[in-house]
Design goal:
It holds the Pfam family DUF1775. This protein has 237 residues and is α+β, with helices and mostly antiparallel strands. It has 2 helices and 11 strands. The radius of gyration is 30 Å and the shape is extended.
Length: 237
C-alpha cells in the first residue's frame, strides 16, 4: 500500500512540473491591478511587466487606452532610466471638467522607453498611471506592447473571457467593489499550482490514514501475540 501511494505522489509531482513547463500561460504575463477602483473616482493603475530569462532586455512599454474609453486625466509615473511619451486623441463626445470647462483631448497611450539597458532578463518593474475619473464599466482593459532590445514585440492584447487561456492576455482591472488587489494575468498558472497542491494534500491525508491504520494493526498484532500471564499456583490449605 505504501509503495502504491509513493508511486502516486511521484506521478503527481512529475505531472505538475510538466504542466508548468509546457503550458504557454505558465510564463509570466504583463499583469495589472488598481488601487481605488470606483467608477467616477481616481485610481492608481499599476502594470507589472516581467522580463523573461530567455528574452532580450525589455526596452519599451506602451500602454493604450481603448478607443471607446475616455479618461479625462491620465498621469504616468516617471520610472528611473526610462523616457516618457504621451499620445492624445480628440474627445468624442466632448467631456467637461468639474468647473464646466470643455476638454477636447485625452490621453490615448503612454510609452516608457529605456534610455539605458532597459529591464534585464529575470527582473520586473512597475509602470503606474493615475487615472480619473474612471469610466463606468465593470472591467477596464489596457492593451500593452512590450518591445525587446532585438526589436521583437509581445502584444498583450488578447481578450481573456472566463474559461479561456490566451497566450498573451490583455492586462485588465476590475472597477468597483471587485477591484483587483493583485496583478491579473496568471490564472492558468494559478490553477495548475492549486490543483497540484490539492493533489499533494489528498496524498498527505491518505499517507496519514495509512500510518494510523498501520500503527493500529501493529498494536493489535502485539496484543494478540503476547504470552498470557502465568497462572498463580494454588496455595495448599
Amino acid at each position: 500500500m505504501l509503495k502504491i501511494l509513493l508511486r502516486i505522489v511521484g506521478v503527481l509531482m512529475v505531472s505538475g512540473v510538466v504542466a508548468l513547463l509546457v503550458s504557454p500561460s505558465a510564463t509570466a504575463h504583463v499583469g495589472a491591478y488598481i488601487e481605488g477602483g470606483e467608477p467616477g473616482e481616481t485610481g492608481l493603475i499599476t502594470l507589472r511587466v516581467p522580463a523573461e530569462s530567455d528574452n532580450p532586455p525589455t526596452t519599451k512599454v506602451e500602454v493604450r487606452i481603448p478607443d471607446d474609453i475616455q479618461i479625462r486625466t491620465v498621469r504616468p509615473q516617471p520610472v528611473a532610466g526610462w523616457q516618457l511619451d504621451i499620445e492624445k486623441k480628440k474627445t468624442n463626445p466632448t467631456i467637461y471638467r468639474d468647473d464646466g470647462t470643455a476638454v477636447d483631448e485625452v490621453v490615448s497611450s503612454v510609452t516608457w522607453t529605456a534610455v539605458g539597458p532597459g529591464l534585464m532578463p529575470g527582473q520586473f518593474d512597475d509602470f503606474v498611471l493615475e487615472a480619473g475619473p474612471l469610466p463606468d464599466v465593470e472591467t477596464l482593459s489596457l492593451p500593452t506592447l512590450q518591445t525587446f532590445a532585438d526589436g521583437a514585440t509581445d502584444a498583450w492584447v488578447e481578450p481573456a473571457p472566463e474559461g479561456s487561456d490566451p497566450e498573451f492576455p490583455v492586462p485588465t482591472v476590475t472597477l468597483g467593489a471587485g477591484a483587483d488587489s493583485a496583478p491579473s494575468g496568471g490564472s492558468a498558472m494559478t490553477s495548475v499550482i492549486a490543483w497540484t497542491a490539492l493533489g499533494f494534500a489528498v496524498i498527505a491525508v491518505a499517507l496519514g490514514l495509512f500510518a494510523i491504520d498501520r500503527a493500529r494493526r501493529s498494536a493489535d498484532t502485539g496484543s494478540l501475540g503476547a504470552a498470557p500471564p502465568p497462572e498463580r499456583s494454588a496455595v495448599a490449605e
